[in-house]
Amino acid sequence: MKVISYMKFTRFLFFCFFLFLFFIPFITFATVDPSWTTPVAPFQIADNLYYVGSQDLASYLVVTPKGGILINANLAISPSQIRISVEKLGFRWKDIKILLNSQAHDDHMGGAAEIIRETHAKNMVMDGDVSVVESGARTDFLWTSPNVPGYAPSHVDRVLHDGDTVSLGGVVLIAHKTAGHTRGCTTWTMRSRIPGEPAKTIRNIVIVGGVSFWSEYHFVPTAAHRVSYPGIAQDFKHTFAELRILPCDIFLGAHGGYFGLLEKLRLYPQKGPRVFIDPKGYRQFVVSSQESFEKELSKQRADAAH
Ligand SMILES: [Zn+2]
Q1: Which CATH superfamily is domain 38-305 in?
Q2: What is the Å distance from ligand 1's center to 212 Cα?
Q3: How far is the CA of 107 from the centre of ligand 1 (A)?
Q4: 40-73 confidence digits (pLDDT tens)
């Protein structure tokens, strides 16, 4: 009797071991980049603009006399980190009236449902990303890819279109549709003063939505697959044309890595928010991103011709 149960137990251990082996690839995928969750102390960028995100997942708080606007809810596990940052700055979580985003992927909208539940903020989303947000990524053109995890869906209160403005308490943000990375990827711009500069010096602030792609993005149809979505290559081209003409003094984006957040933060104690004045860095970012897109497009065209 004892022998049988021992054998059963050994078999059970083996079963567990194989189960573990089977799940290893999924476990690897589920691992989140630590820079996405490592907090940074919140800081001021402009008179009414603050950074409340993590080392790499940017989240911005726009403060107005009528309440706050939050850009990016980040991952499903991010809202508590964002909330701590907002409160550390002396603002109230419940004063957030509007939630905006850079793009409908889980690293920017995963926490949206929770933030909306807690703050009752109005959820405003660019037209191409509305169904993605409302389905928790199930309608994303890359859905079922492990690179596009699902997240809690949230209802969209206002559908934005290219060039729309979002206003609250006298502060105006402009939504630029810079699609391709997602169908409604949004670059936000606003004008504001930098603390320490003369009252009359108003700076152009650009928060880049995202321009990256990976091997699952198909810009050209082949015998093996269709394009990721009809018009994706044209969207990317339009995005770069748009980003090239946007006036930019303060360079920001959906990921800290876009604009060298951590490197610039090291100089923040001496230079203050002026460290984010980087029109040259912005141009370089746009030019090199466009170059990698054009290169990939040519490569896909050549592959399709074979
Ligand atoms: Zn993304």
Answers
A1: Ribonuclease Z/Hydroxyacylglutathione hydrolase-like (3.60.15.10)
A2: 8
A3: 7
A4: 999 999 999 999 999 999 999 999 999 999 999 9
20 C-alpha vs ligand 1 centroid, how far in Å? 29
Using CA atoms, how far residue 100 sits from 47, 58, 168, 245, in Å, is 19, 12, 13, 23
CA of 209 to the centre of ligand 1 (A): 9
Nearest to 123 by CA among 84, 87, 70, 173: 70
CB 194 within 8 A of CB 251: no
For residue 39, what pLDDT band results from cuts at 50, 70 and 90? very high
Which one-letter DSSP state was computed for residue 147? T
Q: Which residues surround ligand 1, an ion (CB under 5 A)?
A: 105
Which structure tokens are listed for 240? 């770069």
Q: How far apart are CA 139 and CA 167, in angstroms?
A: 29
Residue 217 tokens read as: 């993005």
Using CA atoms, how far apart are residues 235 and 243, in angstroms rounded to an integer?
12
> How remote is the CA of residue 257 from the centroid of ligand 1, in Å?
13
Full DSSP string of 156-220? -SEEE-TT-EEEETTEEEEEEE--SSSTT-EEEEEEEPPTTS-TT--EEEEEE------TT--SS
Q: Ligand 1 center to residue 185 CA distance, Å?
A: 9
Percentage of the chain beyond pLDDT 70 is: 90
